[in-house]
Amino acid sequence: MKRNVAIVGGGQTYHRARRHDVDQAEMVNEAVRAALKDAGMTMDEMDMVVLGNMEFFEGTHMTDCWLVHATGAYGRQGLKITTGGTVGATVVCAGAHLVASGLCDRVLCIGFEKQEEGDTGAILSGVANPLWGRSMAGAAVGYFAMMGSSYMAAWGAKEEHSAMVAVKARQNARKNKYAHLKLDITVEDVLNSRMLAWPIRMLDMCPASNGACAVILADDKTAKDRCRKPVWIRAMETAHNEQFELDWRDVKTKRPIFSKVCAGRIYGRLGVSDPKTYFDVFEIYEPATWAELVWYEDLGLCGPGEGFRLIEEGKTNIDGPIPVNPSGGVLSTNCIGASAMLRVWEAALQIRGDAGGHQVPKEVRRALTTAYGGTNWTVMIALSGALDD
Amino acid sequence: MTARETEWISIPMTVDVPYRFAAGRYLTKTLTQLRDNGRIFAVECPRCRRIQLPPRIVCAQCHVRNGRWVELPLEGTLVAFTIMFLPLTDPTTGKPHEPPFVYGSVRLDGCDSVLDHLIHAEPDRGKVWVGMRCRVVLRPPGERVGDLSDIVHFEPLPDQSRPGS
After folding, report:
1. pLDDT digits over B82-96, tens only?
2. Residue B83 contacts A, CB cutoff 8 Å
């Protein structure tokens, strides 16, 4: 990068299924205030505001206009981004571009979703071609169910393995005061939960959450002068798949899987040969249990078809050698426009040692975060606590 | 923490958005062939030879114009599926698909893309599997409308059994 970029502060709301007590602006402002407070900065110091959410998920368009008072964008440069599930990460990438290029020294990045206000299934159906597949569109659960059936057929994994992912996520969430689904559940509870779309049960899926996240990005000088524990953005990658190409759920497809492509590129930039030892923690985007198992493999934490062994052996537990989603992840909190940014912010908290109850019990120097949306569009961001690390 | 709800105004409403969608020249060709002749046409990229359905003017991977039309057979292989237990709303009609039902992703023979559609199989894990051979069932001629619903569903080919059963 032309100039170094640091995360110098951040914040999030308490994520909940119901927030009738606030409108979208009031909710977004909770995260903005938390981020400014964490950074010890004021709105006057921000050069620009970048905002993102899912298009029309709240039944309103131009949320950058609606929320201008709450985001702090009044009278300053602003940018609105919508890239589906990846949006929270894309907002951070855009902010990092602004700082790295020298156009801005301090950028406030915000992602939010107030899921209860819209019918996400109905709105998501607009992603599909009305003449070619829309009649079956609108439910992410079906996509991930197909991934699960393909994964089991290819590798011999069982429904118990996805259930283990569900348990890990919700047990981690119990340690995270901001998480939405804090459930003291067992593998049996997951297997006994209501079948939604075989092999996916209720507890295999993420919730629909209301919430927001904000992070403040800054240049070298600001970070060194103003921030006790800056976390550095070391590399970013984005790879887009083609819309209507749905075979990424076929785990044996010969077509490129963009999570894998993206990982290969970001490892190349950083000179990573063994990601599971290079990174100390992973915050990944797993709206369903099966997606986490596939991520393990796409990220190269194990070989193809070995993801379910990692969870079986407890390798990715909060106190395991490869901690994945100590925050509880998307499976425990999914305010979609904020979800990918929460991965970045949670990873930064881990590096700072400020994650509180869900801090992983080892030194955290480096972290990798992922996001995806649409048909396997992927964004990844790598962070470290020291610039020379 | 979130405040306790006392009296918060929160009003349910519906947004109805009429619009007209242009299929364009490539998809129109495939849809008219499907409607009028019950045949399925995809396009092939002149560079990577990838056979793409729905057809697109440009190959996303090579960024060259797709030119050659390829007729696909009406049979293929199920590469992934689910048994749906939720009454999913069909966004094109506003009515639910009645659960449980099977839907899945079928790769028509020779095609590089997959097609998601209803699978006319019993919603029973013993009766449907990855690798199952299926064929297209079309609406009768004269009742076709020129969109993907002209394919009613895929049905399993006879005389096959689940591997290992």
Report:
1. 999 999 888 888 889
2. yes
